[in-house]
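Feature request, filed as a ticket because there's no other form

It would be nice if the structure record came with a short human-readable summary line next to the tokens. Right now we just get the raw output. Example of a typical job, pasted below so the devs can see what we mean:
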Amino acid sequence: YGLGARKVAFNGLPPLGCIPSQRVKSATGECIAQVNSYAVQFNAAAKKLLDGMNAKLPGAQMALADCYSVVKELIDHPERNGTVTSTAPAKPFRCVVVRA
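Raw output as currently delivered:
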């Protein structure tokens, strides 16, 4: 802000309880809710902080991108995005090259 920046976007945390290093800690391979709740709490605090900065700094437009909801939607509903599951890699794409 002191150097002239007025419009800044920050990425919020995604559902960290759903990353592979956390899912392997679950007996069922599911997301770990407690870890996800930390991400939700962090995002809420970050939004509150940015809202406060916007109110105090003239002309500031600081925003928090909601990565959590977007990624959680992809995990919870993979079929809406053309995949069968969010826990396994997609099948490789096989391409046949046709030469004229």
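Something like this underneath would help us a lot:
Residues 7-81 form one domain.
The longest helix spans residues 33-56.
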